[in-house]
Amino acid sequence: MSEAFSNDPETTAALQRRDAAHHIHPFTDTGALNAEGSRVIVGGDGCWITDSDGNRLLDGMSGLWCVQIGHGRREIADAVHRQMSDLSYYNTFFKTTHKPAIDLAEKLARIAPSHLNHVFFTGSGSESNDTVIRMVRTYWDLKGKPEKKTIISRWNAYHGSTIGGASLGGMRAMHGQGGLPIPGIAFVPQPYWFGEGGELDPDAFGVWAARELAHAIEAHGPEKIAAFIAEPIQGAGGVIIPPETYWPEIKQICDRYDILLVVDEVITGFGRLGKWFGSEVFGLKPDLMPIAKGLSSGYLPIGGVMVSDRVADTFIEEGGEFFHGFTYSGHPACCAAALENLRILEEEGVVERAADIAPYLAERWLALGDHPLVGEARIKGLMGALELVPAKPSRSIRFDNEGEVGTMCRDFSLRNGLVMRAVRDSMIIAPPLVITREEVDELATRARKTLDDTLDKLQRDGRMAQ
Ligand SMILES: *Cc1c(COP(=O)(O)O)cnc(C)c1O
C-alpha cells in the first residue's frame, strides 16, 4: 500500500478535481461534495484504510458493513486470479453451470440454518430483494392464492436501492425520489425504542411495535398479505436493536396469518452478531433470506437469496420456468471470492472470534454512554450506535436541523482517524470481525475524543451549555 502510495505522484487535489469532473457518487449531494473534495482511499490492510495524504484510519464500518475478514487478504486475490485464468465468465442460464457456483451453493446450504438448502444468486443485496418480491408473489400464485401479493415492511428499513429494494425499504427520502414505493408494499412502525418508544418501557414497546404488524394484516385483509420482510437489526436505519419482546411476537403473528417471513441478512449474515446468521441469534426461521455484503467480505460483488425447503420445493415441483435472473447470477470469479472468504471465516474461526471480542467491544462502547452528548449507547455483536442529544437524559429533546450534528461528529471522527457513520444524529459502528482488543481500545479512545471535539464545538457555537 505504501509503495503504491509513494509511486503515485498524483496529488490529492488533482484526484479530487478529476473525481468532481466526471463522477456522480451514490447517496451523495454531488454538488456539495465537489465543492469540498472527496477523500481518496488508496489502500486497505486489516482493520485499517489509508488515504491519499497518507493518513491511516481505523475502519469502524468495515467499508459498508461488509469487510468481515478485514482488508487486503491476498488469498482472495489469488483465488480470483486462479478462477479468472480458468474460466473468467460464463452464465448459469440455459441449462449450464460451473464448479464455483456449485461449490458455493453447496457450502451455503451447509452453513445456513438447516431448512435453507437452496440459493438463487444475484450481484447485490438490492438484486436479492428484487428477487424476493418476485419469488414471494410467484410462490403464492403457485399455491393457488394469487390475491396474496402485499408485502409488509417497516418504516426506516433498508433493503437496497433498486426500484424493488427501495420500495421494500421504508426510507421516506428515497420514496420521495422517483415515485416509490411500487404498489403492494405496506409499512408498519419500526421497533426503535429510543426514538419512538414514548412513555412505554422497552419491552412493552417491543410488543406494541410487533402487534402493529397484526393490525396491518387485519386492516388489509389477511388473504391479501404475502410476506413480512425485516432486518434482524436495522443497519442503515441506525443500528436499531429491537427490544427482546419484539421478535417472539412477530414470529407468532407470521405463523398465525400464514405469511412468509423474509429475514434480510445482508448485514447480519456471516458473523456480524457472533453467529453465522442473525436468524440464529433471534431464533428466526426465514422462508427467504437475502444475503450479500459479508458473503464475499465485499471483495467482489455477489449476493443471493437463501430459499427454504418450503418455498424451494414449491418452485421445483410445481413452478415451471421462473422468468428471472441476472447476467452475473453466480459469476464464477465472484463465487471464487466468496468461497475463499468463507474458507477464511471457517478455518480461522472468525465468527467465533467475533463472538469472543463482542463483550469487550460492548464494554468499551457502552462506557461512552456516560458522555454528556450521548443519550443512549447500544450494541449487539459488532453493530453499535450512540444517540447524540442536547439535553440528556431526555429522549424527546433532539437537536434542531436533524443530521447536522451527526455530520459534524462524523467529520471530527475522520479527523481523529476513525471511520464512524452518522445516521441522523446518531453515530454508528460495525468494525471488521477480526478487530483485536488493541484496536477496540483505539476505536473507543478515538470515539471519545470525537465526542469531546463535537461537544466543544457545540458549546463554542452556543448550542449547548458550557
Ligand atoms: C446494503 C443492504 C442492502 C442492499 O445491498 P446492495 O449490495 O447495496 O444492493 C439490502 N439490505 C440490507 C439490510 C442492507 O444493509
UniProtKB/TrEMBL annotation:
Entry keywords, A to Z: Aminotransferase, Pyridoxal phosphate, Transferase
Cofactor(s) listed: pyridoxal 5'-phosphate
Membrane-spanning segments: none
Example GO molecular function: adenosylmethionine-8-amino-7-oxononanoate transaminase activity
Top EC class for this record: transferase
InterPro entries to which the protein is assigned, alphabetical: Aminotrans_3, Aminotrans_3_PPA_site, PyrdxlP-dep_Trfase, PyrdxlP-dep_Trfase_major, PyrdxlP-dep_Trfase_small
The protein's name in its UniProt record: Putrescine aminotransferase
